[in-house]
Amino acid sequence: MTAHDRATGSSISRAGLRLSSALLAFAVFLVDVLTPLEGAVAVLYVVAILLAARTNRRNDIIIAAATCVVLTMTAYVLSHDLKAIASPALRALVSLAAIAITTLLALQNQAATNRLAAQARLLNLSHDMIFVRDRRGVITFWNKAAEQTYGWPAADAVGRVADELLQTVYPDKRDLIESVLLDAGRWEGRVEQRTKAGAVLAVEARWAQQPDHLGRPVGVLRNAHGCHGPRGGARRAGAERAAVSADV
């Protein structure tokens, strides 16, 4: 599939999500106006906002939220007496609050997703080998340099356990290395890894533990350089290569 095909498919997908969001919002509006249901039906507008949020477009989220607010108020005006401040008004306020909270969370999530996407694009531009793994060791990101060095495309590497994919051989027991990492905050040593073609690469690995704002370990920066064959013969010249692994 070409980049153009992916872009076209993405545009169609976003259009479908926008349409689904609009249809759902209109359906909720009709139910709210035409049926005698006493519950806070308008709360279902949050589903329409969540559908719009899946387009990963800020404007789509804002437009969907504004539309849902207008429909909620319109339904209330058409169905109830404005002079009567009772349970219908309370249900309308609950619905508006749900819409506001959902919109805020969706916008925050969209901003975080965009930041991660921007970081991923930068990592793909790097000449360093960079991959991300979760706490189970499963690869969640695999950059272009890693594809070129190890031979596995990202589509094949993502979802695989890193140590199994690369058949990593450590100088000590793996749990001992993790223990040193947790105690000292870093670990250094030479490891051997295999490429897809079967070539064995020996790299000098440097791991640095990454804590969160509370000091809890949340990630490990793995820096590997000096890529050689298992007997010390250089298999590849060039700049330092890096691998990043983050526990998420």
How would you describe this structure to a colleague?
With 248 residues, this protein is α+β, with helices and mostly antiparallel strands. The chain folds into two domains: 3-122, no CATH class; 127-245, Beta-Lactamase (2-Layer Sandwich). The chain has helices at 3-34, 45-53, 58-79, 87-125, 144-150, 154-157, 162-166, 174-184; strands spanning 131-133, 139-142, 186-194, 200-211, 217-228, 243-245. The strands form two sheets. It has a four-stranded antiparallel sheet. A two-stranded antiparallel ribbon has the order 1-2. It is elongated, with a radius of gyration of 26 Å. The two termini are 30 Å apart. Residues 1-7 and 231-248 have low confidence and may be disordered.
Q: Brief description of this entry?
A:
The protein is an alpha+beta fold and 248 residues long. The protein has helices at residues 3-34, 45-53, 58-79, 87-125, 144-150, 154-157, 162-166, 174-184, and strands at 131-133, 139-142, 186-194, 200-211, 217-228, 243-245. The protein has two domains: 3-122, no CATH class; 127-245, Beta-Lactamase.
Quick tags:
single chain; 248 residues; alpha+beta; Beta-Lactamase; 8 helices; 6 strands; elongated; disordered N terminus; disordered C terminus
Categorize the overall geometry: elongated
How would you describe the oligomerization state of the chains in this entry? Answer: single chain
Round the mean pLDDT to the nearest integer and report it. 79
How large is the share of residues in beta strands? 15-25%
Give the strand order, joined by hyphens, for the main sheet.
3-4-5-6
Q: Count helical runs.
A: 8
The percent of residues in helical segments reads 40-55%
Q: Quick one: biggest sheet?
A: 4 strands, antiparallel
Span of the ends, CA to CA:
30 Å
Secondary structure tally: strands? 6
User: What pattern of helices and strands is seen along the backbone?
Assistant: HHHHEEHHHHEEEE
What integer value in Å does the Rg equal?
26 Å
Number of separate structural domains? 2
Q: What class do helices, strands and sheet pairing give?
A: alpha+beta
Query: pLDDT under 50 segments (min length 5)?
Result: 1-7, 231-248
